Amino acid sequence: MGEFVRLEVEDGVGTIRLDRPKMNALNVQVQEEIREAAAEATSRTDVKAVIVYGGERVFAAGADIKEMQTMSYTDMVERSAPLMSSITSVARIPKPVIAAITGYALGGGCELALACDFRLVADDAKLGQPEILLGIIPGAGGTQRLSRLVGASRAKEIIFSGRFVDAQEALAIGLADKVVPAADVYTAAREWAGSFVGAASYAVRAAKEAIDRGLEVDLESGLEIERMLFASLFATKDREIGMSSFVEHGPGKAQFEGR
User: Fold this and answer.
1) What SS3 string covers the chain?
2) Predicted pLDDT of residue 250
């Protein structure tokens, strides 16, 4: 368990909890602790879905600017790859991952949210990539993940201006998947994550990999990724359980074992 980031597990749901007062700024230590928590969530078989949560006040207000201010070009050459990979480690968790966003998700905090599969947002939250206001650009996936999510022109407008996006606009453009009252964010995220706990774990894993890897390649290659993953599931016990249950009892009644 890290000093500022920890993985809490209950009833099949793992919560990667950021807790670095006051704004969960993502300094080097937090970045590395995120990587460690993501690795633990990936490896634990009792974790079926993951929530990334910064608490009731704020998700994460960005990188630690005071730490970055003194860094030179060569310093950042060395640090930029670990920064990027720490956020990517969350994207590579082979389970459903929900960002439960309260307060602000800005800069690196927004990039952390973008690395999740879904974004559940408080009705008074603000998201954005304001790096341009510091004379830099997003450096942990913002230019790439945001444009893939909301389209190139919208991403350019948000990044070029550095403005904040409120919850309702985020929902309208696809940056948010659900908007709920601020007091209900974590409860709603737990309920959503819980819906994946009884699913066929390897099928969910394969579906996520097919979608994510497929978006990185051309259509023909993506179709081949899907074909291979589809065929591989016929080696799982859950496939036997799911098909037998369907034939005998109809859809939606299978009790999967996660193997």
Assistant:
1) CCCCEEEEEECCEEEEEECCCCCCCECHHHHHHHHHHHHHHHHCCCCCEEEEECCCCCCECCECHHHHHCCCHHHHHHHHHHHHHHHHHHHCCCCCEEEEECCEEECHHHHHHHCCCEEEEECCCEEECHHHHHCCCCCCCHHHHHHHHHCHHHHHHHHHHCCEEEHHHHHHHCCCCEEECHHHHHHHHHHHHHCCCCCCHHHHHHHHHHHHHHCCCCHHHHHHHHHHHHHHHHHCHHHHHHHHHHHHHCCCCCCCCCC
2) 92
d(CA 9, CA 199): 17
Could you give the residue numbers annotated as active site?
Answer: 63, 108, 111, 131
Handedness of CA 136, 142, 147, 150 (dihedral sign): negative
Give the residues of the chain that fall short of pLDDT 70: none
pTM here? 0.94
